[in-house]
Design a protein that fits this description.
By secondary structure, the chain is of the alpha/beta class. 37% of the residues lie in helices and 13% in strands. It contains six helices and five strands; from the N terminus they run H-H-E-H-E-H-H-E-H-E-E. It has a three-stranded parallel β-sheet, covered by helices on one side. The chain has a two-stranded parallel ribbon with strand order 1-2.
């Protein structure tokens, strides 16, 4: 069943509300990169099939690199490979413990997409918090 699930997961792409619109908007203002903690085989397939694929300059999958988010080493690897500066970079993500903590620990601005209006009861503090992807236009 696990093999069947993964094989089918590789073929599936779905976008959260306003994802295409905000990625198109951001791509006109900045270079975009993806860091995903998903399985390499699954994520490479899903990203290549996605309508968002053409907007991203780089894709980083920790399974291929050896360090998952929020490990500082994944960010060191990414910044060694791309010409982004910390001062001009923001990580946007929906997971406080991997996306936001990783960005905070590495010294870059963070934006937590809090779709479910959760109360943050952790010591992980994002630079920005939004409820909808469209709100990100006001930040970038």
């Amino acid at each position: 069943m696990s093999i069947f699930y993964i094989d089918n997961l590789k073929k599936m792409t779905f976008l959260i509300p306003n994802a295409l619109e905000i990625v198109e908007y951001c791509s006109k203002k900045a270079k975009l990169a993806i860091i995903t903690n998903g399985l390499s085989d699954v994520q490479n397939s899903r990203i290549s099939l996605s309508k968002l694929n053409r907007y991203f300059h780089h894709t980083f999958i920790p399974e291929e690199i050896g360090y998952p988010k929020p490990d500082r080493k994944i960010f060191e690897f990414v910044f060694a490979k791309i010409s982004f500066s910390k001062e001009n970079t923001i990580i946007i993500g929906d997971n406080l413990k991997s996306d936001i903590k990783g960005g905070n620990d590495f010294g870059i601005e963070t934006c937590w997409v809090n779709f479910n209006n959760e109360i943050n009861e952790t010591d992980i503090i994002p630079t920005f918090e939004i409820k909808s992807l469209l709100e990100f236009r006001e930040i970038i």
